[in-house]
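Before a colleague's protein record goes any further, I have to sign it off. Thanks in advance; the entry in question is below:
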Amino acid sequence: MSGTSMDGVDAVLVSFDVDHLSVVGFLNTPYSDRLREQLATAIVPNALLSLDNIAKLNISVGREFANATKALLALTGTRSSDVAAIGSHGQTLRHSPDSDPPYSLQIGDPATIASQCGITTVADFRSLDIASGGQGAPLVPAFHQAFFRATDKNTVVLNIGGIANITILPAAPNDSIEGFDTGPGNCLLDDWIAKVQSLAYDDNGAWGASGKVCEALLKKFMADPYIQREERKSTGREYFNLEFVEGILGTMASLDISTADIQATLAAFTVTSITKAIKQTASNVDRILVCGGGAKNNTLIQGLRNEFKKIQIESTSYLGVDPDMVEALAFAWFAKQRLAYAPIRVTTNPNSSSKLLGAVYEISN
């Protein structure tokens, strides 16, 4: 799995027994600086990429995924012949579920992964959901339901990756689940600190915590049309990026605000947009389980605890699942379901046939 933070590949080796899982090993392999720069250029809105550029990026990311897999197998002493399948999400270049026609494009050539690892690979998970009328994102609610739903607590699973998304898991077994992208997670924080301090991320949210929230700027961020949409929705880095931040800052040039204050305000934007989404759609929530890189950002977590004072907020590690692994675990499970030809419904719209399957790239021995 490589998410909207585009920082590298999360690879997890997992063993499934019915609906239980056990983690054999986990490895994060950072992208090279050159590949990160190429991907950052490729996702800029209105980027003009040749077919040659896209094709080469597709293979390059596929090689990175294959190398991450082989490194994890070596780390755990596992033979490729002992692995049933690889579930590969790939790297999203563009997500446009509301265009005509709608689409979501992930690169990371599955044939390259299958060939270099010698393991059947399942990929292209979002396409069938979009073709069937879904948003194609987030996909993880189906996994959250299978492994995090509790009959005694109304639960929200909050993934704070580059983009933040929530899954609403009612305690009542017959109530349907919900899931959608709330808006920015870490992406704007990462983009701003990269621009100002040439750092990849704000470690533990420390720089953001040193600044002061500008309420006028926060109000401008929160007025964004995507944040104000109340229907289920999905988004990506092609929308929330440095151009988004600089565009709004350009309309408020008279503000006397430091770069640290802007970081603090961006953190508040993440917290406030998440809070708005949860309060609108899960007003009776008992607990919030946090996963993704944002689970390690104390500024974000403390901000959420200030907003939800009477609600239990814990990392998924509270249930024994490392928050860094959750999405990679999900795609392992999706691959397992696909090989069993067990379609997964990823929309709650009763009029949609939306299901998740994935395409299989099989290695014949």
Q: What stands out?
A: The longest helix spans residues 51-76. The first strand starts at residue 8 and ends at 17. The chain has two domains: 8-135+327-361, 141-319.
